[in-house]
C-alpha cells in the first residue's frame, strides 16, 4: 500500500501534489528501462520521486499525476531525453578508482605506444560531467611526452545531455577539484575561471577530449577501434542481458591488445571468450582466444 503522500510548495507559491504510487513508479521504470537499459527498483521510489519533482518544477506542472499524463501522451517522445537526464545517477570524481589510472600510466599506455606510436584512441563510455575523461587526458598527456607525432584522442560520451555540456565546459568547483588526489591534481593544469570559486581544465587537455551525447544501447556512430575503453559504474544500473550485449559490443570495438576498464563493483562473469582479466577490474582483448 502506498503511504499518504506529502505536498510541496512550488516556486510560484502553489502547492504541488507529490502523490507517486507504486504503479507510477513501475510505469516510469518501464519507459526508462526500454529507452536506456537502466533498471529502477521499487526500493528507489523516494529517490526517483525526488528526481522527477525537480523536472516537474522545471516544467511548471502542478503534480506528479500531470507529469504521468504527459508521459502517456505523444509528448513522451520530446520529453524522453529530459526524463532520462532527470533519473540518471551521475556521481563521479577525478581519478576515481585510482588503481586504473596507475595501470593506465604504468602498463597500458606504455605498451600501446610501444606497439603503435602514431595513433591512440580512448573512449570514456559513460563520462558523466567529465572528471573521468579529463583524468584520462591528464595521464595521457604525461605518457605522450616524447611521442610528438602521435594522433591521440579521447571520446567522452554519456546519455545525459546536461552532463555532456558540463564535460564540454571542463569547469569545476574548488570542492570538486579539492577531492582529486593531491599528487595528481596538478596534472589537470586547472586555472581560475570567470565563475567565482571555479576552475577550468587546461586547454591542452580539453583539446584531447571530444564530448558527445550517446545512448550506449543505440547503434554507435563510429567504427573504432579503440585501444582503451572506460565503461565504469554504469553497467551496475543495467540488467544481465543488456550488460552481456554491451560487453560483447565493447569487445568488438577494442583493438587487439586493447583494454576495457569497468567499475569496482562490476564484473564480466567468468571466462569471457575474448576479454581476459589483466588488472583490477580491467580486461584485455585477445583475438587469439577467439579465432
Ligand atoms: C555513476 S556515473 C559514472 C561516471 C564515470 N564513468 C565514473 O565511473 O565516475 C554513470 C553515468 O552513466 C550514464 N548512463 C546511464 N545509462 C546510460 C546509457 N544507456 N548510455 C550512456 N550513458 C548512460 C549516466 O548518465 C551517468 O552519467
Mean pLDDT: 93
How many H/I helical runs? Answer: 11
Bound molecules: S-adenosylmethionine
Instruction: Briefly note the CATH topology name of the largest domain.
Output: Rossmann fold
Tell me the total number of β-strands. 12
| CATH class descriptor name of the largest domain | Alpha Beta
Overall helicity: 40-55%
Q: How much strand?
A: 15-25%
Based on helices, strands and strand pairing, what is the structural class?
alpha/beta
Q: Tell me the radius of gyration.
A: 21 Å
Named at the architecture level, the CATH assignment of the largest domain is 3-Layer(aba) Sandwich
Write structural notes for this entry:
By secondary structure, the protein is an alpha/beta fold. Helix content is 41%, strand content 20%. It has two domains: 7-87, Chemotaxis Receptor Methyltransferase Cher, domain 1 (Orthogonal Bundle); 98-290, Rossmann fold (3-Layer(aba) Sandwich). It has eleven helices and twelve strands. The chain has a seven-stranded mixed sheet with strand order 8-4-3-9-10-12-11. A three-stranded antiparallel sheet has the order 5-7-6. A two-stranded antiparallel ribbon has the order 1-2. The longest helix is centred in the middle third of the chain and has 18 residues, at 98-115. The protein starts with 6 loop residues before the first strand and ends with a helix. The model has no long low-confidence stretch (mean pLDDT 93).
Amino acid at each position: 500500500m502506498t503511504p499518504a503522500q506529502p505536498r510541496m510548495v512550488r516556486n510560484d507559491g502553489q502547492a504541488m501534489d507529490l502523490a507517486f504510487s507504486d504503479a507510477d513508479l513501475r510505469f516510469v521504470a518501464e519507459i526508462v528501462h526500454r529507452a536506456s537499459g537502466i533498471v529502477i527498483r521499487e526500493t528507489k521510489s523516494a529517490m526517483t520521486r525526488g528526481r522527477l519533482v525537480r523536472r516537474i518544477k522545471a516544467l511548471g506542472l502542478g503534480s506528479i499525476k500531470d507529469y504521468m499524463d504527459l508521459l502517456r501522451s505523444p509528448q513522451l517522445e520530446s520529453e524522453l531525453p529530459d526524463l532520462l537526464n532527470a533519473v540518471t545517477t551521475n556521481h563521479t570524481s577525478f581519478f576515481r578508482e585510482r588503481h586504473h589510472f596507475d595501470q593506465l600510466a604504468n602498463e597500458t599506455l606504455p605498451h600501446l605506444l610501444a606497439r603503435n606510436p602514431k595513433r591512440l584512441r580512448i573512449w570514456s563510455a559513460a563520462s558523466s560531467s567529465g572528471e573521468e575523461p579529463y583524468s584520462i587526458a591528464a595521464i595521457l598527456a604525461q605518457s605522450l611526452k616524447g611521442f610528438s607525432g602521435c594522433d591521440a584522442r579521447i571520446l567522452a560520451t554519456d546519455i545525459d545531455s546536461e552532463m555532456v555540456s558540463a564535460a564540454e565546459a571542463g569547469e569545476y568547483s574548488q570542492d570538486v577539484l579539492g577531492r582529486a588526489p593531491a599528487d595528481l591534481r596538478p596534472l589537470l593544469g586547472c586555472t581560475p575561471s570567470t565563475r567565482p570559486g571555479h576552475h577550468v581544465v587546461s586547454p591542452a587537455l580539453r583539446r584531447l577530449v571530444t564530448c558527445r551525447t550517446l545512448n550506449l544501447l543505440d547503434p554507435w556512430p563510429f567504427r573504432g577501434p579503440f585501444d582503451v575503453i572506460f565503461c565504469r559504474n554504469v553497467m551496475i544500473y543495467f540488467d544481465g542481458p543488456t550488460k552481456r550485449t554491451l560487453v560483447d559490443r565493447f569487445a568488438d570495438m577494442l583493438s587487439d591488445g586493447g583494454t576495457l576498464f569497468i567499475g569496482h563493483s562490476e564484473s564480466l562473469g567468468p571466462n569471457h571468450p575474448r576479454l581476459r582479466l589483466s588488472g583490477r577490474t580491467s580486461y584485455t582483448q585477445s583475438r587469439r582466444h577467439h579465432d
